[in-house]
Amino acid sequence: MTTRVLLLSITLLFTSARAAALEWFGSDLAGAACKGQGQGFGPYDYFEVDEPSDARYQEGRWWEVRVVHADPGKAAMAANPFDQIAYDRAAAEFDYILRAFPNHPDILYSRVMLELKRAGTSGLRPYATPPECYLERAQVFRPQQSHIYQLYALYLGRLGRTDRAIDYYRQALTIDPKSAELNYNLGLAYVEKKDYEQAVRYARQAYALGFPLPGLRNRLRSLGVWTEETAQPQTSPSPR
Length: 240
What we know:
mainly alpha, Serine Threonine Protein Phosphatase 5, Tetratricopeptide repeat
């Protein structure tokens, strides 16, 4: 192979690797630009590599990532005592996974719950990349996957940012309007906002779609806004 051909091959390889990389997008909840470490390997769509029957299973190496990173990360998250070392270990493991699998539902959820646990534990410093930045990146990677918006809404709701949570639940519903869980969670968010008309509307839809838990219905009953008449679904609500 000539030097020129070799250099061309290296250039093409470098260009291809850069084209495949997924940068950081958006801003954190304080308004600062999201930033994080560079791409290790991937990015892969988790749903394409999570089963041996999938064509990219070997390439994605999810089985290896699960054992080497996900399981230790979850163990650190559950450590007792939950201290700075445990938090940092869990955050670093989840960071590695989410840079490779930006849309991984379980690890995105784990990263959100890890941050909420840190916020409720005195004296722990946050990891450099907060959960919202992984969620922003995941949206760019797979904008039509509703679980990403749902998890962002869950996170915002737990932080008391109800209006923004509702916005994200609505976005998720535009993708998956027949999700009983999304309709239920949006109904709960409207209860927090004290918009009981909308809460009843989405509760009706959730139960018409078969959601099994009575919590939202019970809350609406206790508020005096849920009757047998309101229990009957009318037309399917569209997010607005």
